[in-house]
Amino acid sequence: MKNRQAWIVALATIFAGISLALVQNKVAPCMTTLISAFSIDMATAGWLSSLFSLVGIVVALPASVILNRFGPKKGGAFALACAIIGSLVGVFTNNAVVLMLTRIIEGIGVGLISVIGPSLIAMWFPESRRGLPMSVWGAYQMGAQAVMFFLGSTLTLNFGWQGMWWFALAVCVVALVFYLLCVKSPRPEDSYADVESTEVRISEGIKSPFTWLISLVTMLFCVGCFGFVNWIATCWMEIFAWDEGQANMWVGFFSIGGLVAAVIIGAVLNKVRNRRLFGMIALVFYGVISLVGMNLPNPGLIVVFVVVYAFADAGFPCVLWTMAAQTVNKPELAGVAMGVVCVGFNVGILLGPPITGAVAEAWGWFAASVLICAVCLAATVLLRLVRLYAAADDAAKS
Q: pTM of the entire structure?
């Protein structure tokens, strides 16, 4: 019964994460339409998307305080409310500045759920069984990206850019209803990470060097990962003489493959004892695959590459959220650990695309692929230094 309740909470939380990720990813598929509708330049349009990374950096640590003071149910509901209010105001505006402000409001919601979601799963699942739910959680961004890119053209053609806003808004409303009905905290004596404990000292979690170390590892991975994903379509357009639609289609398949891979990896993680080693292998694997992807000898290998890349892309994120809560020596500090890791996550998203693009423009795609591989290898070395704590009472509670 307890396991069933844990999965109900996890699935409602994951659905909330997906709905907020739909809000985050609604700009890219209708970028040209937004540029035309608001008469803005490409740089301004780019900020409509990248603002989320900046907001995520600012919100990450305060999110752990909100989680501790108000609990995951109220905190998650507030996150969804931010997205709903921001989307509702945004869909009726014809002013670029107002739209930008609504994206900041929405970004607060995404920043909060990025910390609250994995913390809530950590509360309901012991370390030995977190692999699968955390892996599914880790794929929520992939799922949202796939949905928005595949529906983007239809929604925009039929309803303009507002179609993307209305769709994400509707899903958020449904997610809020499910969240309020299904999500609750376990009893303190049954919690595997009592992040609501009044005895939690946020400063104690922030001082953990291992948490900041894994945050740095996460930042390096995201520099490489988001640098690759943002530029691989452009790379293939140049080396294979493809049009934009053909290149983007294959990139869209990354997300679908990543969802399947995440479920498989999550099931495997529940049986893996040395998750740090698993994460190190995943980082090396991603570095090598990205090196291959930007230097494919012919387009005939694209199908094989997409399948293999899906597992490389899902590998480290799946193990990351499972390990993050173990970088603090008290389970109740898990929420703080998630906040610190989210700082690195968002910094990497912010830096990856411009750095990779600058290297590619100056020295070519091979140099860009070497950069991505190098940062993943550097992350692998740093992950070796991360210490993971095991909750002493997990076995008894299981």
A: 0.84
